[in-house]
């Protein structure tokens, strides 16, 4: 079963189209756009402030505001693993002034975690553009006294159910990443869901929980201070943000993969010209050298460029087809 949770290298590479950027996308779409926006645009983030979705969204929307000529205002609506905010946007008026920076967990994994999700990601949301790929790693608090992934696995095996891990919410990518890790290693730990990654790291540093799975950019300051120990990046290549942290294979757990991605969606029925302009704006923002550098080199979140709304929609369906059966087979539930 553990193998079913793994992401083959070809899928990971396919999810990183940064090298397939299409510069012609932005000018054409901008030229055909209607007189929109004529007032501030709301970008809902379905997690608490301080997490990877929130921080990356704030970075991108700063540039996006310049491109669109109107403020793009972040509004945090956390709860239920991100599904509360996602449902809010799915039921919002399709007038082009409400969007969401969703994640793989809220528009993909959630379909396998909830018996009755209040929205259909494919029918109730219109794909606009992806933002970034989010590789995931595991870090523990220093007081556990482990220096390697194998030492941590041995500690978990010797103390079934003693240690706890925090995640951004039931069904969040970090949650599923740890579920896959526990199943692959035959270990047990207690899940403590939060309303975003920011609160998770606060409690991890305070010793309330013992470990978490998240993106390297959020781990970096605490790893560098010595408060946390990063044990593995669940990828094929080391992170440029935490180059000292071994990959899964290097850490003795070959094949263990974990990732997420973030992307912009609108309520279904939003006029296509508006979706096209927003997609073009996202492409321009992600192509900005300063934005791309901060996302990739400082946060470890490679921009996902070169997507039309149609291509992004096809990508979403592929992700749903791949992940939902695996999530259901894992037995993980969020309701």
Characteristics of this structure?
BUG; D-Maltodextrin-Binding Protein, domain 2; disordered N terminus; signal; TAT_signal; Transcriptional initiation protein Tat; Bug_dom1
Describe the structure.
The protein has 335 residues and is α/β, with parallel strands linked by helices. It has 2 domains: 2-134 and 260-330, D-Maltodextrin-Binding Protein, domain 2; 137-233, Periplasmic binding protein-like II (D-Maltodextrin-Binding Protein, domain 2, 3-Layer(aba) Sandwich). 43% of the residues lie in helices and 18% in strands. It contains 13 helices and 10 strands. The chain has helices spanning 9-14, 25-32, 52-68, 83-90, 104-113, 121-124, 149-158, 173-185, 197-206, 216-225, 272-287, 289-298, 309-330; strands at residues 41-45, 72-76, 98-103, 125-135, 137-141, 164-167, 190-193, 211-214, 228-233, 259-267. The strands form 2 sheets. It has a 5-stranded mixed β-sheet, sandwiched between helices. A 5-stranded mixed β-sheet has the order 7-6-8-5-9. Strand 1, helix 3 (52-68) and strand 2 (72-76) form a beta-alpha-beta unit. Helix 2 (25-32) packs antiparallel against helix 11, helix 3 (52-68) crosses helix 11 and helix 5 runs parallel beside helix 13 (309-330). The two termini are 22 Å apart. Residues 1-24 have low confidence and may be disordered. Residues 1-26 form the signal peptide. Belongs to the UPF0065 (bug) family. This is Transcriptional initiation protein Tat. Keywords: Signal.
